[in-house]
């Protein structure tokens, strides 16, 4: 009987330790923020098509908005980008076209709005097995609280393979500012 109690106690302790470890892991990847009053919405849009084959992030022409955070406060920015997209041309499967939204300040410091996925965010995928990747509408939304200063919030894009072409057209970029 005593052996069973010890065995159960060991199982209970193992479950508690495992649960705590999993909870700590979940907290490490989850971030949260809360905004207050909506202060402003800025919008840019374009019907001009543009393409890139760059494996390094480059700005989407015209998709940038300057914002100012007054001294002594922070502001929460939510940025959304919607576009007609086409990702095509790779000769190997598993390639994609990525978009990220960043903020840079006057010193040149750059922060990616959250979640910070970098090239891991597949905005569009190159369908090598398909005869043609058709045009489609895609979107990304990101947010981050920024400190005092003048910031430029920009949309950037890149491909995972230089043989891939990433074409964007008919896009809208909006940035909402909350207290």
Layout of strands and helices, then pairs:
Layout: H1 2-29, E1 38-46, E2 50-52, E3 58-69, E4 75-88, E5 96-105, E6 110-112, E7 122-125, E8 136-146, E9 149-159, E10 165-178
Antiparallel strand pairs: 1-10, 2-10, 3-9, 4-8, 4-10, 5-6, 5-7, 5-9
Summarize the structure.
The protein has 179 residues and is an alpha+beta fold. It has 2 domains: 1-30; 38-178, Jelly Rolls (Sandwich). The chain has one helix at residues 2-29, and strands at residues 38-46, 50-52, 58-69, 75-88, 96-105, 110-112, 122-125, 136-146, 149-159, 165-178.
Describe what you observe in this structure.
There is one protein chain. By secondary structure, this protein is an alpha+beta fold. It has two domains: 1-30; 38-178, Jelly Rolls (Sandwich), CATH 2.60.120. It is built from one helix and ten strands; from the N terminus they run H-E-E-E-E-E-E-E-E-E-E. It has one helix at 2-29, and strands spanning 38-46, 50-52, 58-69, 75-88, 96-105, 110-112, 122-125, 136-146, 149-159, 165-178. Strands 1, 2, 4, 8 and 10 form a five-stranded antiparallel β-sheet that branches. Strand 5 and strand 6 (110-112) form a beta hairpin. It starts with a helix and ends with a strand. Mean pLDDT is 84; it is low at 3-28.
